[in-house]
Amino acid sequence: MTDRLTADTITSDQLTDLYERLAQTEELLRVANDTSNRSEAERAKAVRRAKLADSVTAETKRLMERRTTTLRERAERAEATNARVRSLAEQWVKAGPPPLGTSMSRWWDARLAELRTAVINEPDHGAEDTTTFLVDRPFRSHRTSACGCTYGERCPNCRD
Length: 160
Prior knowledge:
This protein is mainly α. The chain folds into two domains: 12-120; 132-160, no CATH class. The chain is 63% helix and 0% strand. It is built from two helices and no strands. The protein has helices at residues 12-95, 104-120. α1 (12-95) packs antiparallel against α2. 1% of the residues are buried. Residues 129-142 have low confidence and may be disordered.
């Protein structure tokens, strides 16, 4: 026969025990459901974090590649500059000291112009500063006009 209780054969103590077991089972089921929901939420967070980490890693990799390219280009330019300066130094050693009767300042100016060209890699187009600074005072300006004066636009010799 079966151990299953029927409504006719159950006692009140057995019914109370059944309701307690039912309550315990429902509590266990609720705890299991809450745990499952929390673990699912944690898994979703972990997936989002992994995606974010992948995107950050990809962005970091892209930035590092760009930085590496920039540094490589700077290193190549520096090496080219060093090669030009070394070549210039060899030329100067071969040329020797300035000839007698040559002005030392002009000789050094020529050497410095050569060095500047070797370092900057652009010819010296004169040391004249062409920057224009205007000051809001009447008849005064830091701009150099066509005739070389410092009056600027109000110069009677420069107006056309």
